[in-house]
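Q: Here's a chain of 124 amino acids. Please give me its 3D structure as tokens.
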Amino acid sequence: MPTGFNIGFFSMGSNIFFTVFILIFVLVIGGFIFIIIKSLSTWVSNNASPLQNRTCKVVAKRMQVSRGSGDSTSSTSYYATFEFEDRSRLELYIGRQQFGYIVEGDLGTLSYQGTRYKAFSRLL
């Protein structure tokens, strides 16, 4: 007669539990690895891009609020959309301080590298 949990339903149940546990573990670790690789790829791409200074107009600003759940706090990301002389547009993540200084309709020179905002100098 078999002993322990290796009989009937218990044997099958522990195998399903183990398989589901491993699957969830692999998906979570895979998600972290994907995020790290994507972030490193963006960082390397931005560093390889030339620093550009282009005349443009600020056509839009927006904030994106990510709400926390439960006791966690929310966070806010700030973006500005710039339109260049050739009518192409570029939306860049900018810091809170710069967001306050930039006004829609401003004309100036945008400095950026890849998708990384560097500075905006208003033309007077």
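Q: Can you summarize the key feature?
A: The chain has a mean pLDDT of 88.
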